[in-house]
Amino acid sequence: MTGFGTLLATLLSHWRRRPWQLLALVVGLAAATALWSGVQALNAQARASYDRAAAVLGGDRFAAITGPGGQAVSVADYAALRRAGWRVSPVLDGSWQAGGDRFRLLGVEPLTLPAGAPGGGRIGTEADLVAFVTPPYRLIGSPETLARLPAGAWATRADPELPPGVLIADIALADRLLARDGRIDRLLVAPEQPGGLPPPDTLTGTGLTLTPPDESSDLAQLTDSFHLNLTAFGFLSFVVGLFIVHSTIGLAFEQRRPMVRTLRALGVGRWRLTGALLAELLVLATVAAALGMALGYGIAGALLPDVAASLRGLYGAELPGELGLRAGWWLTGFAMALAGTLVAALSALWRLHRLPVLAAAQTEAWYGAQLRTLRLQAALAAALALAAAALAWRGEGLGAGFALMAAVMLAAVLALPPVLALVLTLARRRARTPVAEWFVAESRAQIGGVSLALMALLLALSVNIGVGAMVSSFRATFLDWLDQRLAAELYVRGADAGQAAAMTAWLQDRPEVLAVLPIQSVELSRGGYPYFLHGIRDDAMYRESWPLLQAAEAPWDRVADGSGVLVSEQFARAAGLALGDRLTPGGAGPAWTPEVVGIYPDYGNPTGQAITSHARLTARWALPPPTRFAVRLTDGATPQVVAALNQRFALGPEQAVDQAALKAVSRQVFERTFAVTLALNVLTFAVAGLALLISLLTLAGMRLPQLAPLWALGLTRARLARLELVRALLLALVTAALAVPLGVLVAWILLAVVNVEAFGWRIPLRHYPGQWLQLGALAMVTASLAAALPARRLGRTPPALLLRVFSDAR
Amino acid sequence: MLDVQNLTKRYGALTILDGVSLTLGAGETMALVGESGSGKSTLLHLIAGLDAPDAGRVVLDGRELAALDDAGRAAARRDLVGLVFQQFNLVQSLTVAQNIALQARLAGRHDAGRAARLSERLGLTGLEARFPEQLSGGQQQRVAIARALAAAPPLLLADEPTGNLDEATGDRVMDLLLELVAEAGMALILVTHSPRLAGRLRRVERLHAGRLE
């Protein structure tokens, strides 16, 4: 064996004698890597799917022509545009049900389709083209999508590049399947057009609108906040896992101080030794990272259904049911694990590198409470708290919100050991019996040893409380808001103005119908910020149910007479509007500057909104007749009205939506969105529990010299074990008590700062003491479980082992 | 073999060694005696390159330690010096056999036969697979001596090697140490405050208040 090999083998021999410590290191790092890489696998999978979808379906990258208000285009208008020289291609895009499953069906006309347009390049060879455009036609989809179709019902062609849930068909087939009856959803405009073309709206006189290419609706951008949320949790779990690694490496390195001193005395140079320690760490980190990556893959696989459901519900993004393995994911995972290990080991490695060869050979008081360290931690915590206060006072932007969160959490974590020391110092004054005095003094001395694990526990607990409070506040507010905003019993949409008018007339004749309220809007902008101005017909429904965050005197009267507008919270924040400010919406007629008379919440809507009266809206803008309506019905009348509507007008599945179904879908989307967050929360908590177990296990082995004298003085081993258990529970209890205010603060930052900066709306924080008690109890159970094994081992320590503490020959 | 010139070492205002000079030829043995705090261990540490002097020089087998960097001093220690401490300083996670071979392996001159012979001579046969914590104090010190001798260094520095042992065990350990040093033709500096032990070596130097008397 070479000199370096001998050195490495000598260093590694430490772990052979302490398998628990090795297990702690490997499990800690594997857990950290697993949670991080699991989340990254999900994100990578989603992003790859978006890329696939964008490559195949990226229609928004082309200009499009639609009817007024984004409605369908008639075949006559299409023909007029083609005759005038416009290079446009018709597209049908809709939801189609087959065999109990829903698909996104894209109808294209391959001969006019511009290169790179949705479905473009996916038809195949010339023979495939013929089969595609002639009966019985062909449906093209990914193999997994085609497998969901009723067997043998359709001629198909598999294209693995297509995103899941998407089918492409010739426009003639799609027209039949989607029951469009000649209506075209949009006309894609080829990038190259002949010069001197007349504008579409003047050409046909039917209010056609040319929409420029829109990069902003790219799925990847829409879902960024969702993935940021996941990444933040993955990173938090990674940090909690690193606490274990840091703690274990710190302990192992401290225990090896005598070995290091001996090796140095035997002629091993400082740099060579540091290099060997580094090599040893890298070997261990690589093994742990490989385990962690495998575990992470499993976690990602388990969470994928919920993530897929959230993305589908929130953004309509489809994810395949199986995870792919990507080289980038492996490399990033390994790099994070190795970098994390180095960061966690840096201070211990530096201390050993700087260790004077003549330093005392004994193991340093690793677990002793060091006043200097406590003071330093307290000073750093105070400095971070000041920085957090400054950020809360003057910080702006999402970055400042996250910095505030980081400063608060770091300050709290650093303050934990000094606070525990303070609590125990106060307790010492009240201790009366010798055992109680010893118990408190020993607990204080142990703070150094378990502080990292307790910090991890504090972090996990407070994040659980914070996120729990956020989700619960969100849920309660969201449900209240849904009840208020979806006050009408039924929402209907006519396929065109004619059908809408017929439906309105029919509805108004029915005795169960209390009111038919039109929903119409125009898109405007204020200072470059786009918003929709909605017109509503004055009705008790709005006056009684519509939620307002702030309101001036008689806001609904002011809206009804046109002198006031209501604005959404997002719009108010983005455009800097407050009550009393004035808008200048424009439109035809004399100058109109309505006053802002109310601000209302509009959760989850990324675009701004304002509300005026319907009469005012239609007077200033030449809008086509309304096609969407909210319908007020008498109690219990909804099912028969929906059934009668369907029978009378043969409505599509989304043309008549009753309030209860809409709320149920919204609730379902909400619950699944937060299911992933809560699952990650639980996993983070489990890792923190593991950190505590490992700390207590490793400490237990070092505590014999402190416990043996007590045993010699007459305390039984069982009593000593019980005292150790009580100590762990007390430390966890104080930590849990500190976690409550910290968790509430975290929730406040998430709701009042991060959410407002990211999405423009604020949710009132609600408190849930029941949840806190539950989490506190969970922390106690975790601490009990973590302390039980070391206590049991202590209770069964053979007397001979305790006697050796007193032996000089040791 | 060893040339020490005007060695001075201070810790703050306290002068531990004050212009100490001595030489030691190959195979020569010397006892360094003196009361506690006289600077015996400090002198040994300076000779081994474990610490740096404030003034003076140590030349070990032609290598001036002050001219070497940390790696150079470590190499000199590895190649030229065997160390035996009062506290044994064995690697607790290595077996007896591994501890004995450790320095020789690090120096790249491990000789399994020599290690086995040393084990046998020092009465460690049968204990090779044990860990240090499973040995008595006398056994641990014999392992430490075997480790120092296994690398066959030209100079052995022993700092109170029997200080932690009872008299009978200490005597047996010393007998073996001197016997093996003589056989290998090594130079030896033995730090002790026992006149009886010092008397067994060819030369005795006394340190008093940081100076050789």
From TrEMBL, chain A:
It comes from the Bacteria. Residues 452-645 form the MacB-like periplasmic core domain. Its main location: membrane. Keywords: Cell membrane, Membrane, Transmembrane, Transmembrane helix. GO terms for cellular component: plasma membrane. The chain crosses the membrane at residues 230-253, 273-300, 329-352, 373-393, 399-426, 447-471, 678-704, 725-751, 771-789. It is a multi-pass membrane protein. The keyword Chloroplast does not apply. It holds the Pfam family MacB_PCD. Residues 232-355, 681-799 form the ABC3 transporter permease C-terminal domain. The keyword Cell membrane applies. It is found in: Cell membrane. PANTHER family: BLL1001 PROTEIN, MEMBRANE COMPONENT OF PREDICTED ABC SUPERFAMILY METABOLITE UPTAKE TRANSPORTER. This is FtsX-like permease family protein. It comes from Halovulum marinum. The lineage of its organism: Bacteria, Pseudomonadati, Pseudomonadota, Alphaproteobacteria, Rhodobacterales.
TrEMBL record, chain B:
GO terms for cellular component: plasma membrane. InterPro entries: AAA+_ATPase, ABC_transporter-like_ATP-bd, ABC_transporter-like_CS, ABC_transpr_LolD-like, MacB-like_ATP-bd, P-loop_NTPase. Keywords: ATP-binding, Nucleotide-binding, Transport. Residues 2-213 form the ABC transporter domain. It comes from the Bacteria. GO terms for molecular function: ATP binding; ATP hydrolysis activity; transmembrane transporter activity. This is ATP-binding cassette domain-containing protein. It comes from Halovulum marinum. The lineage of its organism: Bacteria, Pseudomonadati, Pseudomonadota, Alphaproteobacteria, Rhodobacterales.
